[in-house]
């Protein structure tokens, strides 16, 4: 189960672990939770966020895209999105929320650049993490990243803005405050009409909460180890 938007004790250092597909994830011992599925960090992120979210919305032939990630965590979703969109020639504005950024000694030892087998991946992954917080930074022409060291609840936005939402919080049983009607309503208010939200969760309470907030929701096949996930469309 991915848990990138995390409640991390300032006294605890996440432990790097190896997942089934050979890619790293992080484990928080205090909660017995992982940042990604133990069946495969990269394979899960590709399935949930790239295939079901990014590639789906790209079928609409958009020229520009506003993406919001709730929370950046290891930076894996940013890297995979960047690698995918570098082939498209679009104008991309990517906002990533993460109230508990990883220390350099952690992210530098993650093996994502080696696993994705893209020569430029290591350079881009370093840019993702080394760029300044609270300042928009252009990683490549047409792709800018704005990292915000805040919780979703503290993000100040007025009116719809985002076309694609990566919702990747701890599960509802671990971090229930991220799966409330208030949170879903806030996300809905920031999502453009026909915008897409993807999350690994397939719980009925999550589906009903998103529907009540104005999303049309479908349950689709999940990544390995998880039968279903949810994809929502802003009505």
What does this protein look like?
- With 235 residues, this protein is α/β, with parallel strands linked by helices.
- It has one domain: Rossmann fold (3-Layer(aba) Sandwich), CATH 3.40.50.
- Helices cover 28% and strands 27% of the residues.
- It contains seven helices and eleven strands.
- It has helices at 41-58, 76-85, 104-107, 112-116, 121-130, 181-190, 204-212; strands at residues 15-18, 24-28, 33-34, 64-70, 91-97, 137-140, 143-148, 162-167, 191-199, 215-221, 228-234.
- Helix 1 (41-58) crosses helix 2 (76-85) and helix 2 crosses helix 5.
- The longest helix is centred in the first third of the chain and has 18 residues, at 41-58.
